[in-house]
Amino acid sequence: MTEPGAYGGPTALRIMLGVHLRRLREEAGITRTDAGWAIRGSESKISRLELGRVGFKVRDVDDLLTLYKLKDGEERDRLLNLAREANNPGWWQRYDDLTPNWFHSYLGLEMAADLIRTFELQFIPGLLQTPDYARAVVQLGRQDMPLSRSEQERLVTLRMSRQEVLTRQRPARLWAVVDEAVLRRPIGSKAVLKGQLEYLIEASRRHNVTLQIIPFDKGGYTATGGAFTLLRYNDSDLPDIVYIEHLTSAVYLDKREELDAYVVTMDALSITAAQPRETERILREAIAVL
User: Fold this and answer.
1) CA atoms within 13 A on the CB side of 79
2) Confidence of residue 1 (pLDDT cuts 50, 70, 90)
3) CA-CA distance, 212 to 206, in Å (whole number)?
4) DSSP assignment, residue 215?
5) What architecture (CATH level 2) is domain 10-86?
6) What is the Cα 69 distance to its own chain's centre?
7) Helix, strand or coil for residue 200?
8) Among 10, 165, 196, which Cα is nearest to 91's?
């Protein structure tokens, strides 16, 4: 089982394998429909496989490689082994009973990311939350079906495990932009918020963490549609992805024009926000009025 902090993870492996399969299919001049027929499936199944949205049967991958006339035995073995590894459960699957299916892919993608850029206007970003703050957020999110104490603690543990992406041997870089309103909203209690803001001062001093605040006096700004996260990868086989979470679902965007729009928006937010060197001062001012 892949543990937090390991590089890759089944989600990333599925996407990488899907990229290779799509490239081989296109080089062979074979349509998705014909590829689907070869593995007793459909065009939509091939599409899902190539996007890394579903697990792989090693037999299907073997059949596709034969159809695509891949003659390099070493490369064939590598791709088949990749298919086997992509079916291993990720560490987060132990929380499947508490998290929605649409969130599972994000956990794998976040773990594999090299750069995580996120914008928040309601909560402290999950990768920077303290256990007490995370616990208060968890309680807010399940008003319709209250969780037991043990279930709450498991979700808090999940969130803390996610944060290991920032402290592993080769940590991901986090660049977070948050609205000043986040610093003023006493999630849990004023004491919980104070502890959270004090932790942000410490976290913002890390070499791989950049935290910017958009002060109230900046007025309006772009990205009024809500929070989003941009995940970037050093591996050329992994496309950049924008993640947008809704109440009952999530959207994953990877088309070039969509990515470009969000990159421009994130850059604009960073320009609007106070410079990183001002972050500690703004945080201390917020603490002082609690």
Assistant:
1) 26
2) very low
3) 14
4) -
5) Orthogonal Bundle (1.10)
6) 35
7) helix
8) 10
Tell how far CA 283 is from the center of its chain.
Answer: 26
Beta-bridge partners for 20 = none
Topology of domain 96-288 in CATH is Endonuclease; Chain A (3.30.870)
Amino acid at 281: R
pLDDT (tens digit per residue) in 233-275: 887 777 899 999 988 888 888 888 999 999 999 999 999 999 9
In degrees to the nearest 10, what's the CA dihedral of 110, 113, 117, 119? -10
Where do you find CATH 3.30.870 in the chain? 96-288
C-alpha separations of 182 from 159, 179, 213 in Å? 18, 6, 9
Cα–Cα distance, 60 to 39 (Å, whole number) = 6
Report the candidate in 115, 91, 99, 101 with the shortest Cα–Cα distance to residue 9: 91
Q: Please, how many CA atoms are within 13 Å of residue 253, restricted to the half-sphere of its CB?
A: 16
**Confidence check: pLDDT of 2 > 50:** no
Place of tokens 């977070």: 176
Would the pTM count as exceeding 0.90? no
CATH 1.10.260.40 domain extents, the chain: 10-86
Torsion angle, CA of 265/166/16/71, rounded to 10 degrees? 140
